[in-house]
Amino acid sequence: MKAYTYIEHGRFGLLDKPNPALQDPRDAIVRVTLASICTSDLHIKHGSVPRAVEGIIVGHEMVGIVEAVGSEVRSVKAGDRVTVNVETFCGECFFCKRGYVNNCTDPDGGWALGCRIDGGQAEYVRVLHADQGLNRIPDTVSDEQALFVGDILATGYWAAKISEIVPDDTVLIIGAGPTGICTLLCARLKRPKRIIVCEKSPERRRFVREHYPEVLTVTPEACREAVLANSDRGGADVVLEVAGAEDTFRMAWECARPNATVVIVALYDRPQMLPLPDMYGKNLTFKTGGVDGCDCAEILRLIEAGEIDTTPLITHRYPLGRIAEAYDLFENRRDGAIKVAIDCTE
Ligand SMILES: [Zn+2]
Ligand SMILES: [Zn+2]
């Protein structure tokens, strides 16, 4: 089969690889129909994910059709259309039982797919712990509608959930990249009084205004003043930091009101300063990533009910054979690219 592979630092390539086979009774093999490219794939390419293994097939955001299941798999069967979870988790350990699946203690637990175990920018993918890692897509939900459920939408949903937004809140979301927009979509479900999105790209600010006209958009330069002017309590009640840029961690706690919750969704390239003397007395609560992606069934239900729609994020489509071009477009954000869908059946 064709499989997009992490060859070495700085280089991915489309290689011919053997089709994956069941190796454990809890495995499933999924024929990938649609995959996507995530910023984390670029992090692997450029060496900022040290645990990524050279030679691995990349891709951790995909949907497909179950081809085969091991003897212990109960929740899906061959022929089911499914979303694949970015995280591998056993469902049984201390962390899994409490919903902290990102810290699953299974040797393959956490973000392993397309990083330490073969991923899904390929024709087929083996999914470990398939009862946990796969969710059936409702018949009325299309592949495109479900494409982001297992990764960026799971992240946005988790971030909104742990942020404990209440209806009276002013919420600041820093970053309107794909994950930022998914976070925005899930934060809206909590019906806060006001959402402010801070984003440096004019193109992305325009995208947010066009699709979510009730959201206030600001530039990083104007962010702090805009938050102060639009909050009743000297800052945002909840801040969600999804940008991971040079100054956005500082911006996150500076724009928060006293006793606010600051959720760090972003994956930073380098260590961040926590200047405790400067924030002393602000009594902030920080919550940090990565995602506990165990609410995919609920997310699919919300999509089916028309509460979440991420299809406007898919700005481009490519066949698997031209995935290198898709990466180039995505990485350089050409032509207004937000997310690229890769058709793995062509
Ligand atoms: Zn990702
Ligand atoms: Zn576990």
From TrEMBL:
Sequence ranges assigned to domain Enoyl reductase (ER) in this UniProt record: 13-342
Pfam families: ADH_N, ADH_zinc_N
InterPro entries: ADH-like_C, ADH-like_N, ADH_Zn_CS, ER, GroES-like_sf, NAD(P)-bd_dom_sf
Gene3D superfamilies in alphabetical order: Medium-chain alcohol dehydrogenases, catalytic domain, NAD(P)-binding Rossmann-like Domain
Entry annotated with the keyword Transcription: no
CDD domains with a match to the protein in the record: FDH_like
Keywords, ordered alphabetically: Metal-binding, Oxidoreductase, Zinc
Obligatory cofactor(s): Zn(2+)
Family recorded in the similarity comment: Belongs to the zinc-containing alcohol dehydrogenase family.
PANTHER family: NADP-DEPENDENT ISOPROPANOL DEHYDROGENASE, ZINC-TYPE ALCOHOL DEHYDROGENASE-LIKE
Name of the protein described by the UniProt record: Alcohol dehydrogenase
